Every structure is written in C-alpha cells, then in structure tokens.
UniProtKB/TrEMBL annotation:
Ranges of residues in domain SnoaL-like: 8-132
The species this protein was found in: marine metagenome
Name of the protein this chain belongs to: SnoaL-like domain-containing protein
Amino acid sequence: VEKLQQEIEQVFRDAESIWDSQKYRNLKTLWDEQDPYPFYLAEEQMDWKIGWSALEAYWEPIPGRRMIEAIRMRFYDIKIKELSQDLVFVGGWVRHDMKIRGPMKAWGGDARMSAVLRKREAVWKFVAYTESHRTPLTYMMDLYKKQPKIPIVRSIVERFLTRLYEKNVHPEFASFHKSIMDEEKTEYKVSFSKKLSF
C-alpha cells in the first residue's frame, strides 16, 4: 500500500510541475490517451469536459497563448482506494493560486478533488478528475441571475466573495507570479529579436 501511495502521489507531483511550467497542454501526458472518454471537471466549470477535444480546449483555449498570467496548483491530503490491480480511486484536496491577465487581482482557494487513475504499461494515468464543489463566486452569480429584483445585493455579494478570494492568496504566490512574468518577458524579447534579425 505504501508503494502504491507513493506512485499515485508522484503523479500529482508531476501535475504540479506541469502547472508550474504554465504549459497546460502537457497535462495530457499524465492521462490515459487510449481512453476515448476522459472526464474532467474543474471547480469553475458549469459542466463536465468529456473527451479529448473538450479537455484540450479547456487546457489551452487558444493554442500557443496563455489566458492566465500564472497559476500554481498544489495537491495535498491524498488518499487512495485500490479498485483493482489497474484502477485506483483518489480523494484529496487541491490548492490553487492564480492571476488572470487584466486588472483583476490574484486570488487563491482550496477545493476537494477526486480522480480515477488507470495503470497503463506500468505507469499510472488519469482517466477522470473532478474538483468537488463549484466555485462559490460563480455559483452565487448564477443564483442571483434568477433573482433580478435584487441587483444591489448581488453586486455587494460578488465584491465580498471576490475580496475573500483575493485575501486568500498564498504568501509565496507573489514571488512565483513575478518569476513567471519575468520569464515571459525574456521569452518575448528573444522571440522579437529573432523576428527582427535577417
């Protein structure tokens, strides 16, 4: 059991490394690509992403471009239940800190997560992943859409919830965000210089 726990936790450490790299499309390398119907549900999503086209579009909506300045994911309290020799159910928590491009401030939060992994050629791969509760901010916004007579309360609640997320950013995220943006500026300068060279 201890060996299996270590193997599964390593998959999540590998996922953290890919998120840290900001190359989200590489998350696919951790999934069972022979499975035609992977399931994925992040906490901000309205509904499941099912199938490779949906997952790839979620990870990288515009190929080659990041919509997020920086995101940092950390998985913890990982617990496993062996379903068979080649299937494992995983339960635990995920911590995210992120900064979207634009004027919005960085924010952070924690969510329960669960996953199913399949052993494929001695390597554990995701076949399903979900973050178990929906983001309170988007959930409350949808609830208020059903109550058009109280628009003032809606705006107050949205500001309050957004502020809570902004206050919840991990202390280490500021330096992480800066390093990602510095790297992006360097890559842009190198790319721009190459375009100008003849």
